[in-house]
DNA sequence: GCGTGTACGGTACTGAGTACCATTTGGAAC
DNA sequence: GTTCCAAATGGTACTCAGTACCGTACACGC
């Protein structure tokens, strides 16, 4: 996937990427070992062999390390949006069909790294403050979804609801398919079936 | 509503309630005036004429002041749950009908104090960290909803989805009916109509 | 090699939240 | 009213997250 990163990777870029990865690995190890809240930034910095200041140059705050894979998901989403067929998106059912496909693109991306997802899931469910931040991410996806729908002709009220319903399916899947990215993907599909099955009945 | 609070209100209880209210009023005034993040707890404590320590005795953290009306909503929800008719709750449509009624009970409670709601809405939408916490509240409601459904015979997967869909309708309403509690109540109703309308079609 | 900009580490600061202290004060029993 | 007790309070001191600033080292382009 990311074997071709721009022109060439300079020494500086490589070092930067390496320290970033070292921070992430160190932090995740410590968080899983002893819990997010009791691990201090100082500790992470020491073990990763960097200064405290440097940590905050790479990540805005302590929580941000946990959400470091965010960019991959956003890339997957925007790619899926770009590939989306230009179909009519007037009513709720049509809007849901599209946003379903977009959500599944994100889940599929998550399933590409099941180990990381499992750890992430565990951390988030054990720490309310991380769960808060996790739902902020989800809100952001909803915003992007909503915008995409509106840009393709969906009436605002319908688009807002469709985006939120999609998030609802994801949240349900998150609760039901814990720790396992593939299970979450399947549960999200089931949730949509259940939701749309009610539509068909 | 709350004219009969237990046996009798002692002097101690009255003083406690008064300081609590003084803290809330002071904090909201300062937050609205200058923004949540730049107001310090020291400042709130000084203006409310209490010690910094006392502030944290009344509220676990600075954010908690913003969500001080939480208890009223929870009371309204549990009351509505208790009053709910014992109807069959097997399929998604039935579960949604019930959770719709419960959600509207909460919104109605919120509409009883429109001024506060408007300020609350404004604060939350202007500060991501408060929005994080706001959705934590919403998650909590979803949990209660889900439990209620399961306790009344709804299959777990259906209950989880129904609870999340209800939250979705609320979130859509929150976005569409900004600042105005009555408008949010109406939008939540509309969202359910749209959702169930797709069901009927 | 030689400037230049970027990354880095260190110090010092503010503010949130916690732990512990002594003091005050309301309530109750006599 | 006095006495005793528990609850409420205010203050001090601490840890840690996050920010601002400064001097230094190093990769890069020439």
From TrEMBL, chains A, B:
Segments forming domain HTH tetR-type: 17-77
Source superkingdom: Bacteria
Keywords from the UniProt entry: DNA-binding, Transcription, Transcription regulation
Entries under PROSITE patterns matching the protein: HTH_TETR_1, HTH_TETR_2
Keyword tRNA processing: no
Positions of the DNA-binding region: 40-59
InterPro entries: DNA-bd_HTH_TetR-type_CS, Homeodomain-like_sf, HTH-type_TetR-like_transc_reg, HTH_TetR
Pfam families in UniProt: TetR_N (PF00440)
First and last residue of the signal peptide: none
Claim: Nucleotide-binding is one of the keywords in the record: no
Protein name stated in the entry: TetR/AcrR family transcriptional regulator
Organism: Streptomyces gibsoniae
